[in-house]
Amino acid sequence: MKRGLAIYAAAAYAFLHLPLATLVVFSFNASRFTLWEGFSLHWYQTLFSDAEMADAAWNSVIIAVVSTVISTVAGTLTAYGLWKRGSRLLSGSLYLSLVTPEIVTGISLLAFFQWVFRWLGWHLGLFTVILAHVSFSIAYVAIVVAARLRTFDPALEEAAMDLGATEWRAFWRVTLPALTPGIVAAALLALTISFDDYVITSLVAGVDSTTLPMVIYALARRGANPSINAISALIVVIFGALILISERLREA
Amino acid sequence: MRRRHFLFGSLATGLSACRRDRRPRLNVYNWSAYVAPDTIPNFEKEFGVRVRYVTYESNEEMLAQVITGNSGWDIVFPTHNRVPPMSSMGLLAPLDRSRLKNLPNLDPQFQSPSWDRALEWCMPYMWFGTGIAFNRSVAPAPSAWADLWSPRFKGRLTMLDDPEDVIGASLKKLGLPFGSTDPDEIRRAEHELFQQKPLVRAYLNAEVRDQLVSGDVLVAQLWSTTAAQALDVSPSLDFVFPAEGFPLYCDCAVILRESRRRELAHEFLDYLLRPAVSAAIAQSTLTATANAGGHALLPDKLRNSAALYPALDVLRRGEWPGTLPPAAQRLRDRIWTEVKAS
Amino acid sequence: MNRLRFCFLLPARIWFVVLFFAPLAIICAYSLLTRGVYGGVELPWTWESYQRMIDPLYGVILLRSVVLSAAATGICIVLAFPLALFISRATRRKNLYLQLVMLPFWTSFLVRTYAWMFLLRDTGLVNTALIGMGFLRQPLPLLYNDAAVLLGLVYAFLPFMVLPLYATLERMDPALLEAAADLGARPRAAFFRVIVPLARPGIWAGIALVFIPCLGAYLTPDLLGGGKSVMIGNLVQNQFTNARDWPFGAAASLTLMLLTLAALGIFYRRGPKDLL
């Protein structure tokens, strides 16, 4: 039984990783077709000389970083506030926003922005995408941080306050440091989700906010293009490394 | 503390880096693969401006943004039959002909087109028709829409992912007008599409190009420009305008009413109208320019391409679809959902 | 005490009112309005969009979404269970095994979907390899059908099934199995009589985590289905773009939302409270 399980697990890991591994391998293929014609960095060259791609990558990074910072702060505060004393309404809203299908979130945000901006004379752009990303990331951050808070002993905070610390100082000096690993994990989750999002982003994006997933999607719709393999390979490797490093840090 | 200042400081400079450029900026939203690689850089250099150039894949994608009237775009490129509704909705700025010195370069048939007689709202840019792209290994070669219902292409046939073209082709097969608004006729066309669906591999637009080239797909309903791009790569492909008649389309440049840089927008349109510029675009993207001056500069092989610039007797079978009335549009949308969901 | 908590919760509260409930309210309003000629909405108020939802055509699309999601969830359970069991039984490197499950999830949904387009095309790797080895002469039509969509969904959401299953199996006492064996249970019986019932909360959590996102899937049917496999997510998106029928799109998205909540209601009562 044990051996059977191990063989099965190997097959399952192959199923999970082989598709991405082939993408990475074929990003180095000289041919634009699936026949292997030799090693080449040609597709990476086209990738790096593509201004639209560079623009999109830059937008994606800005959006991911800014929305991660905002949602990590707001989400952490929310988790802490709810840990102090629960609020049915707010935690219900958190879960509700978590299970709302992306397409519904995207459509409703689009309708909202269009309706409000008509009065204000603004238009869709980088900041609408950031607002949208924050609104779906807060719930993820709050839930990951809340999980960490469950293992935190409230007595520590009380002790700090008995020793004369204000509420705020107790939070800042005692609770927050203890939560750091959870907050880092939450931020990482928010970062990857934001960097990856296509459905919501494509709906609320405007003039200045074409992101990397939008470019990849457009390329994929235009037909097979080995540049997608190259950019995918970069994303897989960079994010894979980021996750593994952060896991190492957490265990250390 | 100092470390934190550094962090915020670098974040702020990083964010402002992309805003530092103070040159006037034009926001252009165009179909993908519709300019030459140097078209935009040359314009930026010559006029000392910046152009934010982004591409879309369908009229609807563009309309969804533009319809709000505060999308931020200055110039977009709707297909000709989207121009009248856009202008009646008040989305378009009238063209100032005194600023478009190169307008006479347009081909005579686009000087006064049916959708905008006086070129009040739009500048015809590129034109194309819908036909059938096929692999020469197929014998006999398809020559009519009716051939797309032939079981010998089962699983190797694609239709466009576009309700107007697919329903229109079905109507034409039945000998009915492409732009029919009669509910009974549209229902009959739907019935044909149900019959056809088991043969269809997928409903694809530009995506099909590589699959034609690689031989995965043998027969495809396709736009002539996309087909010309496939033909250019693979000698085993050919393209035909169907016998029953076919639609002709023209993508036109328009300036949006919301644009605050109309003067610069006119400069850009006039730049696109230059023969050398339009020839360079048509040559590098393999599209059919509406610009006679540009057409004259093209190499012979391209100028005589039967897919891009069909002969007069072929063109006579073509028609320019008009704007559909809302009720017919609605019925067609519904039928399209039914066909795809069946 | 309360002031700090109030301040801490304020950003989230404002956020939810302005960017979650207000947009949903607008969608509700849109769903009750009349379609504008070229998009947008107009007065008068009407129930028409909801009446149209009852139409058998859209019923078929709803049903297809539910069936595809259920199938994907079922396949995920079958595939994930042995893997979760393997990880929970591993004596060393448990964390590494878990991370390996999560790694593809951390990369990019779009890239993962594209990877399957790349593999399943007629000239994709699978067909090229099978033809090269002489198993096939004609490429198999692997892409652009429901099976491809199903595969894409399973691949995308498998990690969500493995994690909760692992969490419950991990807590299980291995002595239970030994006891079952001592009492004469064959491995198969032990598995179905002992392990599965104990893992039930994890299974329900996994079902919720896989079924709900599948129901709203939009990209997978779009890219792997070739426009022939319409799910409700595509119906919603299509109403807001191609068909320009915002009221109906709004009604369809609220229907999807209700379906999601109904599914959640069923799973939540059966699943463990702390895993969801």
Describe, in plain words, how this protein is organized in 3D:
The complex is a heterotrimer of chains A (252), B (342) and C (276). Chain A is an all-alpha fold and 252 residues long. Chain A has a single domain, classed as MetI-like (MetI-like fold), CATH 1.10.3720.10. In chain A, helix 4 crosses helix 6. In chain B, 48% of the residues are buried. The radius of gyration of chain B is 22 Å and the shape is globular. In chain B, helix 2 links the parallel strand 1 and strand 2. Chain B folds into two domains: 167 residues, D-Maltodextrin-Binding Protein, domain 2 (3-Layer(aba) Sandwich), CATH 3.40.190.10; 145 residues, 3-Layer(aba) Sandwich (D-Maltodextrin-Binding Protein, domain 2), CATH 3.40.190. In chain C, helix 7 packs antiparallel against helix 10. Chain C is an all-alpha fold and 276 residues long. Chain C has a single domain, classed as MetI-like (MetI-like fold), CATH 1.10.3720. Classes of the chains: A mainly alpha (252), B alpha/beta (342), C mainly alpha (276). At the A-C interface, helix 1, helix 3, helix 4, helix 5 and helix 6 of A face helix 1, helix 3, helix 4, helix 5 and helix 7 of C.
- Corresponding CATH superfamily of chain C: MetI-like
The CATH class name of the largest domain in chain B reads: Alpha Beta
Overall 3D form of chain B: globular
Shape of chain C: globular
- Total number of strands of chain B: 11
Distance between the termini of chain B: 64 Å
CATH topology of chain C: MetI-like fold
Greatest contact pair?
Answer: A-C, 82 and 79 residues
Total discrete domains of chain C: 1
CATH architecture identity of the largest domain in chain B: 3-Layer(aba) Sandwich
Give the number of DSSP strands of chain C. Answer: 2
Largest sheet of chain C: 2 strands, antiparallel
What order do the strands of the largest sheet of chain C run in, or round the barrel if closed? 1-2
CATH superfamily of the largest domain in chain B: Periplasmic binding protein-like II
Number of helical segments with 4 or more residues of chain C = 13
* Helix amount of chain B: 25-40%
Order of helices and strands of chain B: HEHEHEHEEHHEHEHEEHHEHHHEH
Radius of gyration of CA atoms of chain C, rounded to a whole number: 23 Å
Number of individual domains of chain B: 2
